[in-house]
Amino acid sequence: MKPITLADVQALDAADPLAHKRAEFDLPAAVIYLDGNSLGCLPKAVRTRVADVIDQQWGSDLIKSWNIHRWIDLPVLTGEKIARLIGAAPGQVISCDSISVNLFKLLSAALGLQRGRSVVLSQQDNFPTDLYMVQGMSELLGSQRCQLVTVSSDELENQLTEDVAVLMLTHVNFRSGYIHDMQRLTELAHNKGILVIWDLAHSAGVLPLQLDQCQVDFAVGCTYKYLNAGPGAPAFLYVASRHLPTVTQALSGWMGHVSPFKFSTDYEGALGIEKFLTGTPPVISMSALDAALDVFNDVDMQQVRRKSRQLTELFIALATQTSALAPLSLASPADADQRGAQLAWRHPHAYAICQALIADGVIGDFRAPDILRFGFSPLTLRYEDIWNSVQRLARILETGRWQAPEFSQTSRVT
Ligand SMILES: *Cc1c(COP(=O)(O)O)cnc(C)c1O
Fold first, then answer.
1. Measured between alpha carbons, how far is 155 from 167 in angstroms, rounded to an integer?
2. Fewer CB in 10 Å around end: N or C, the chain?
3. Strands (E), 47-95
4. Ligand 1 closest atom vs CA 127
5. pLDDT tens digits along 2-30
6. What is the CATH number of domain 6-42+300-408?
7. 345 has which bridge partners?
8. Mean of per-residue pLDDT scores for the chain
């Protein structure tokens, strides 16, 4: 096959229908950012919005802002903007808390609908917090009400039996990028009377999703990854409208009350998705989320998907034609249809290589024990960035520069 040239790559940029989106972000100069799957870049609109929330809304309008700037409506308003991106009709998505806390609420809701069944089935290599939350729920309720069973990805379908209450999976694996077939697994689970919770952490904002069409029961996701809402921005949750009248959730705080400002002493949950709120929304970061979501107003998620596929395919093709990258082995599915917008590469010294690459201006991340992980955010990356990343990675491997002692020092966050 003819090797890919820089001119080929530049032609991809020239024809990219999403190229103009990059200008809507504040990007650090001289950095190639391949970590938008961990913390998305800063949209310019967020900077302006947060300044206004601080100076005008909080600084001047103070408590009046709950009404006049609709602070109180932010969980629902941002939830509806997310709903559009994940294939959910109105009234089923709300922003609040973190994925971990929202999983607790959804687990309690789902288990409440499944009296007589106790197993929560998940995958061994799921993101740890997802598993930890089931372990905590099991401690609280006892194993006769909640019991975590984990299996490998290949065994999942065989384990969908009638003692399973809930199937809880992450749609795109955080390490490998492998995408589960949401439609198929949801349907197989439903055939056995199992409710399904999907974690969309690595899907929302980068893959076209059809939650309603797949008849998903519950879902969670975060907004600081591909949705670019900023560090620690609130997560979201989805509850199918058919469950809303009957579900209850354990974290029954006042914001989920049918009328919080009546200050009644007895809890009575709201009728709609608001019953999944607990406490006061974090207004500053939720305003950032609201502004960040507007970046998606004119974005076609199919185009985003096409570009993320092409970005990962380009990286793999360049890695294949660059002999210095031979020591890296692909730990993501080779078939682009089966992987999300990220690539994982195995190397015994992945940590040091990652640090050397960061020092060279290419930011990826390391995932224990031996994975070098790159995320490909289609709204901020150019194809030429991929070319340059592979070049720099090749130089680091050729020269062995990653062996310098400073690249082996570890920090708390990797
Ligand atoms: C990033 C991520 C989380 C983060 O959970 P928080 O509680 O919001 O910190 C959870 N699950 C998965 C699969 C993730 O990738």
1. 13
2. N
3. 93-95
4. 13
5. 899 999 999 999 999 999 999 999 999 99
6. 3.90.1150.10
7. 330, 372
8. 97
Measured in angstroms, how far is the CA atom of residue 220 from the centroid of ligand 1? 9
Instruction: Give the Cα-Cα-Cα angle 254, 260, 266 (nearest 5 degrees).
Output: 70
Q: What are the residue boundaries of the structural domains of the chain, listed by start? A: 6-42+300-408, 70-296
Question: pLDDT tens digit string along 223-281?
Answer: 999 999 999 999 999 999 999 999 999 999 999 999 999 999 999 999 999 999 999 99
Best of 95, 98, 99 for a ligand 1 pocket test (most atoms within 8 Å of beta carbon): 99
Kindly give the distance from the C-alpha atom of residue 176 to the centroid of ligand 1, in angstroms, as a whole number: 15
Ligand 1 centroid–CA 25 distance in Å is: 24
Q: pLDDT digit string (tens) for 360-373?
A: 999 999 998 999 99
Distance 132 CA to ligand 1 centre (A): 11
Tokens 């975060």, residue located: 222
pTM: 0.97
Query: CATH assignment of 70-296?
Result: 3.40.640.10
How many Cα atoms occupy the beta-carbon half-sphere of 44 within 13 Å? 8
**Residues having CB within 6 Å of any atom of ligand 1:** 98-100, 127, 129-130, 170, 174, 199, 201-202, 222, 235
- Quote the pLDDT of residue 410: 81
- Catalytic positions are 127, 199, 224-225, 373
d(CA 117, CA 114): 6
